[in-house]
Amino acid sequence: MRKAIDVSIGVVQEMKPLDKVMQKMAEHKGCGMSAGSGKASCGSAAGQGDLAPEVWEKVKNHPCYSEEAHHHYARMHVAVAPSCNMQCNYCNRKYDCANESRPGVVSEKLTPQQATRKVLAVASAIPQMTVLGIAGPGDPLANPEKTFKTFELISKAAPDIKLCLSTNGLALPDHVDTIKNLNVDHVTITINMIDPEVGAEIYPWIFYKHRRIKGREAAKILTERQLQGLDMLTERGILCKVNSVMIPGINDRHLVDVNKAVKSRGAFLHNIMPLISSPEHGTVFGLTGQRGPSAQELKDLQDSCEGQMNMMRHCRQCRADAVGLLGEDRSAEFTTEKIMAMDVNYDADTRKAYQQMVEQERRSKVAARQDGLSQLAGETSDIRVLVAVATQGSGRINEHFGHAREFQVYELSTGGAKFVGHRRVDLYCRGGYGEEDSLPTVIRAINDCHAVFVAKIGGCPRGELIQAGIEPVDRYAHEFIEQSAFAWFKGYLDRVKRAEIRHAARGDADIRQGAYVVA
Amino acid sequence: MAYKIVKSQCTACAACEPECPNNAIREKDGTFIIKPEKCTECIGYFDDPQCVAVCPVENTCIIDAGCPRYQATA
User: What's the domain count of chain B?
Assistant: First the structure.
């Protein structure tokens, strides 16, 4: 396994015959892209160094745990768990808008029976949906009966679907054995602090042992329960990811300590997410004007934790009823009303055949990446640039600039390409509506990038991007992302060498806070 | 007196329902209601009324001044 890492970080002089490389790559199927420093680049990148093969087997097709897999496999959440046992200053349960994309928000809640029907309906319509998560809209473990009944029904009806849940951890120690017995593969715990002083700024209260407990006392109980739960899960061999919300001025520096604490307790992946805090969400932080981090601040914190453990950078902070690939939400196609009317034909064989096709596509992508990387062999340069990519999935540049709801951002260096995140934008092209206003928003969202890769782009936005110093690149339409990025980067370095262009650093970029407008 | 739930405030999260020691809370027309004749304000069970303590929206579970205080039958 170690060899596969070396290959993926571009030690091309040691390259094995391609078929061997392919085999190794196929075994690991992780992100495989990495910084020149050789550090892990994302959820599933070079992490095999400290992960057992059986762990890889579990995460390789999980879109939330493997950056590479998230281009190919879809997930869904079922909103069976409305209750919560605590209050967070970044959450407001009262506000509930269909256009809103953030955790804690759903359009309708489901019974375990309805949820099972929905899972079968989605699994039939979207064969690459491999993961079912329960993430709320409250806390799954504050609704243990509904949560566990749902898992039980789904594991009987669709045994090929992986189960996972996301919790605040307060009730976790009470339920670890049930989680184990139900074969839940992955658990995510949201841990924003390990210091009760910091916690008191984030959590106004918890409901614990029939009491509402506030302030430092509440945060102390919470952190003890979270870390105890994490210990218990890892002891039992259940994979744990830790989510943390980055709140500038409150826990941003502290998250480095959180990272060390969860790493030492066996969490295998850390996902630091930006605070979402628009005033219109009605959260405490939204109303007090607490800001979220900029793209650069988030990346710096993620980079500083990266030496400790694998960092996840592809999280979309999705709704508790999201359906589809990360970055897309097809939940509106699967409302209770619609699924009840659907002709559901759950066919495990068809799903398997489709997934084999996906695996074929992934293998081609790995080969293409390797081919692209070999073009950079012998190049030495300290230049690092960020590029934005418009994609609909499959690891290809296959989205029109104006249709992109988000851009994926990669950092390119002579050592390789590294996925560093995504930037959500409203649709720029919405049938002429609001076009003039939205282009500057898009530019601000990718302002730290030197180029944007698209399948197609109109003349007007092309001009404005160039004016803003971002090169629009459409000559790799429908090609694989990394391979194209390497080819472009080689050309960029050549142009710098010939002094045709001068390499200059770019500025910071915005992380979009507002409502996600679905066209 | 008993507690009541302000309908316009209720998010229907159902957190209160299993916490009530008297089984006084149920869903009705999309939100939750407290049956006043069953509510004991949690006296004799807990220090705090459980619906108030667990509700995520402030001032949603409130004292219903229109209901006489619960009297345990001898």
Answer: 1
